[in-house]
Amino acid sequence: MRLATVLPEHGPGPVAAVAVDAQNWVSLHSFLSFFGQREFSGKATAPLSSFLPVLMPRFSEFTRKINDWPEHGRVFQGRGGRTFRAKKFLPPIMRPPAFRAFDAFEQHVRTARSRRNLGMVQAWYDLPVFYFANPNSLVGDEGTITAPVGGNELDYGLQLGVVIGDRVQNVASEQAWRYVAGFTIINDFTARDLQRAEMAVGLGAAKGKDFATAVGPVLVTRDEFADKIENEAISLEMRARLNGRELSRGNSKSLFHSFPRMISYASRDADLYAGDLIASGTIGAGCILELSPENAGGWLKAGDLVELEVDRIGMLRTKIAARLG
Question: What's the CA gap between 133 and 318, in Å, rounded?
Answer without folding.
Answer: 19
